[in-house]
Write a structure and sequence with these properties.
The structure holds 2 protein chains of 2 kinds.
Chain A: H1 6-11, H2 13-21, E1 29-30, E2 34-35, H3 37-44, H4 48-57, E3 65-67, H5 69-77, E4 86-90, H6 101-114, E5 119-123, H7 127-139, E6 142-150, H8 158-169, E7 173-178, H9 183-194, E8 197-198, H10 204-225, E9 231-235, H11 240-252, E10 258-264, H12 274-277, H13 287-295, E11 315-319, H14 321-335, H15 345-356, E12 362-365, H16 377-386, E13 390-394, E14 404-408, E15 417-419, H17 421-432, H18 443-453, H19 457-465
Parallel strand pairs in A: 4-12, 5-6, 5-8, 6-7, 9-10, 9-12, 10-11, 13-14
Antiparallel strand pairs in A: 1-2, 3-4, 11-15
Chain B: E1 3-5, E2 9-17, H1 28-31, E3 35-43, E4 47-49, E5 53-57, E6 63-71, H2 84-100
Antiparallel strand pairs in B: 1-4, 2-3, 2-6, 3-5, 5-6
Classes of the chains: A alpha/beta, B alpha+beta.
Chain lengths: 466, 101
């Protein structure tokens, strides 16, 4: 009989993962800290044409790219002379399961089937669960989704409860837990019990699947406007969305396109706190994931995370919860499309960006997500009020995560705040080189670090000797 | 309804970690609560009441045991109440866009 205590199961982590992902990550590791990211991506994942075909088989991809004409009028009216970019939105809600996450799930589940796994498991409270469930339903695999959804009073985040419903709608088993990182323990036990594939968000499959999104954006924009976009804004949480999109843009040849990350500012809220859990209105796309995943990407559910945003992100913008609810309402009221709030984080940041860039610049918001009961500004703000959050219209700097949600009174108030990417890169370098002196690293290690954060070796040395 | 019969869709509860068994990195408020898990499935026992230890077959075909906490559990999430700031946002944006045309 296997020892199922917490310590014993956590101790078997590597062994369980190797079986459940089928990747020997040590093959790609070198030196003291380095690993060959590109080799991992090209050896393990699939080619672009293959991925496009795999996704087409299961109702994923080729989503519309719309110009937001009315929002762009307001951008123009609120910009200085000669300023005011044009915003386009990639309507990823059109994918099977209603979000871009279907792209990631499509490749993972295809691979699981090819490798002969009988089922797939994913640990996610987000759209990814529904995506895996939808893909598993199409490929005839069993599916289990493990969610963190309730506080200790069994009060569930409406947005996550809705995702549980959607997973069950596709025939998946949903396991729901109270707050805490030990979800991972339950996840490991299930992998061991079932022998299913770990459809992690962070495998090369999960990331490469998003490359088709960047690729499509480049191609579509080229055929619509005769050129590639100047900026693509991607909501950033775990990093896969931005990483995959940026890689796809590069593969399409849109190498001059800037890729900006956007997250909702949830500063001050502890992600594993029972009390804070229901005091936030965003369960993903926020800085509580965005910052740690950028600076410690390998603290994921696989040994080497294929989502590595610091390799691709040109700027990192944050917006407030109030601004995201405001633009979600805007999308419905003046653009005539209702989409989920979490997918509109990048839209809020894009509007701010559009008002500062030169006239005629093209900005693509690279996703939308489905909306429904629980996953909509009305139920989310109702829930926030029930949890004691003050909600009003006013100055956006009055937004305090866990205390207030303040929506702008006017369009022109939207203003993203830029985080210091250089500092994040320094933190990343500090984290991965912990316990090593610069002299102890191999030449290849240093090159690896330089690639990871896109700064030169001299700078790496400076950071490490600080 | 507090009684379920074989084949009915029910929810079961398990305590995964008791207070005192929580991981060291967990914040204090969470540490003072147990980690609880809920699973749903079709009841295997002939008959059971809420609170009883039962076995279910889940949608992935697993057999799972736990304390029965709900029978035919309903999803209660909805579209919430009308929210004043959203109504006002809609009206003000339409005014702003109207002023431009």
């Amino acid at each position: 009989m296997r020892d199922l205590t917490y310590c014993a199961v956590m101790g078997r982590k590597n062994e369980i993962m190797k079986k459940a992902v089928g990747i020997d990550y040590s093959e790609f590791e070198f030196g003291k800290i380095g690993f060959d990211y590109e080799k991992m991506m090209s050896n393990v994942a699939y080619e672009m044409d293959d991925m496009i075909n795999i996704q087409k088989e299961t109702k994923v991809g080729n989503t519309p790219l719309f110009e937001l004409h009315n929002i762009n009028r307001l951008v123009k009216a609120n910009s200085a002379d000669g300023k005011g970019g044009r915003i386009f939105i990639k309507d990823e809600a059109a994918n099977a399961s209603g979000s871009f996450k279907a792209r990631r799930a499509a490749i993972s589940v295809y691979h699981a089937q090819k490798m002969g796994y009988k089922g797939v498991i994913a640990a996610t409270s987000g759209n990814y669960g529904a995506a895996v469930a939808s893909q598993a339903a199409q490929r005839g695999l069993k599916c289990i989704i493990v969610q963190e959804v309730f506080d200790s009073q069994k009060k569930g985040q409406p947005e996550i409860v809705e995702k549980a419903r959607k997973c069950e709608a596709f025939g998946a088993e949903v396991i729901q837990l109270t707050v805490g990182p030990e979800l991972f323990y339950t996840f490991l036990k299930l992998l061991e019990e079932t022998g299913f594939f770990n459809a992690s968000l962070y495998t090369p499959f999960g990331i490469a699947g998003v490359e088709t999104l960047g690729y499509e954006i480049a191609e579509q924009m080229n055929s619509m406007e005769g050129r590639y976009p100047d900026y693509v804004v991607a909501t950033h949480a775990g990093g896969g969305n931005l990483t995959g999109t940026a890689r796809g843009l590069i593969k399409a040849g849109a190498t001059g396109c800037k890729v900006y990350g956007a997250s909702v500012d949830l500063k001050g809220l502890h992600m594993a706190s029972d009390k804070d859990f229901n005091r936030k209105s965003f369960t993903t796309g926020h800085t509580g994931f965005g910052i740690p995943f950028a600076t410690q990407p390998d603290r994921a559910d696989v040994p080497r995370n294929a989502a590595r945003v610091l390799r691709y992100m040109d700027r990192y913008l944050t917006v407030t919860q109030g601004e995201v609810f405001y633009v979600t309402e805007m999308l419905a009221q003046i653009e005539g499309i209702e989409r989920g709030p979490a997918g509109n984080v990048s839209l809020a940041a894009a509007i701010s960006l559009a008002m500062e860039v030169d006239e005629g610049k093209i900005i693509v918001v690279q996703e939308t997500e489905y909306t429904g009961a629980g996953k909509h500004p009305m139920p989310q703000l109702t829930f926030a009020r029930e949890n004691g959050i003050k909600i009003y219209r006013g100055e956006i700097r009055e937004n305090v995560p866990g205390k207030t949600i303040v929506l702008p009174r006017q369009f022109g108030q939207i203003k993203a705040v830029e985080l210091d990417l250089k500092k994040m890169k320094e933190r990343y370098v500090g984290n991965v080189t912990k316990g090593f002196k610069y002299e102890e690293l191999t030449e290849d290690d240093v090159k690896y670090l330089a690639d990871e954060v896109r700064i030169d070796r001299v700078e790496i040395e400076k950071i490490m000797n600080k | 309804m507090s009684k379920a019969t074989k084949g009915i869709w029910v929810e079961i509860e398990n305590v995964v970690l008791e207070v005192g068994q929580r991981a060291p990195q967990v914040p204090e408020d969470t540490k003072n609560t147990p980690l609880i898990m809920w699973t749903k499935g079709l009841l295997i026992d002939e008959e059971a009441e809420i609170g009883q230890e039962v076995e279910v077959e889940t949608l992935s075909g697993r057999l799972a045991r736990g304390k029965m906490t709900a029978i035919n559990p309903r999803f209660e999430h909805d579209f919430g109440k009308p929210v004043d700031v959203l109504v006002e946002t809609g009206i003000s944006l339409k005014k702003e866009i109207g002023g431009i045309r």
